[in-house]
Amino acid sequence: MAPIISIRSLSKTYANGFKALDNVSLDIEEGEIIALLGPNGAGKTTLISIVCGITNPSSGQVLVAGHDVVKDFRKTRGEIGLVPQELTTDMFETVINTVSFSRGLNGKKPNPELVESILRELTLFEKRNDALRELSGGMKRRVLIAKALSHEPRILFLDEPTAGVDVALRKDMWQLVSRLRQTGVTIILTTHYIEEAQEIADRVGVINRGKLLLVEDKNTLMRKLGKKHLTVQLHARLEEIPASLSEWNLKLNDTGDQLIYDYELGSNHGAIARLLQDVDAAGLGFDDLSTRQTSLEDIFVSLIGEAE
Hints:
The protein is α/β, with parallel strands linked by helices.
């Protein structure tokens, strides 16, 4: 089956010479959730804007459901729902009219039952007759989500959807994402909350300075680039690690009272027992052991650092 979004050699250079995207290629399968991570200015929003038909590329091609986003704009835009970062709605319009209008704008016939269902799911129904200017920031964000869902898109873009919102909305958002996924909606999100990407995404892409550094299945990425860190809390401080432990490539913390051992996920656990035997044989007593696994955030920071 062809991917629902196919991006080929996509570049975007603005009039001032700034290159926002540099030869990006990516296929996105129908029904998956992909998280795009990157620092501010990395090119995430530009990529979304091109796929959604808001911005034209300088070169390259994007197909959505087999249609070119430039040549077949009307067909591709109808497949996509976008929740942008910025609140760009008529502040004097009511919630229900805003959402209903958005459905009509995308060429769909009125469907009051569907609109009501969306408003209820997003805890907006009681506010349906309120003007947007009367809503809190979190409620306005919910309206943006309702607008994006009003025309029943097959693809949903969430551009920093939980930035600056309360914990309750963030929780509601990811519950909604989970339900949409069950209906087959393809979801592409950008986020600064890396723990959210680690929690819900199938694949993770890392963008920096307009280049797509990596796109990988989340679990495969964790296995390939993840590590575990064993910390041995010593009885007494050391000035240096004994030569008898040199084969283990240990590190000593700044205060000299912890030995740190990094090892690959899935490696032989018998090695830990041998290490502890060698530590004991070197005359080093220890009080405690702790382990920590590399997080997606650790991997992200490492990749961005390597690309600088």
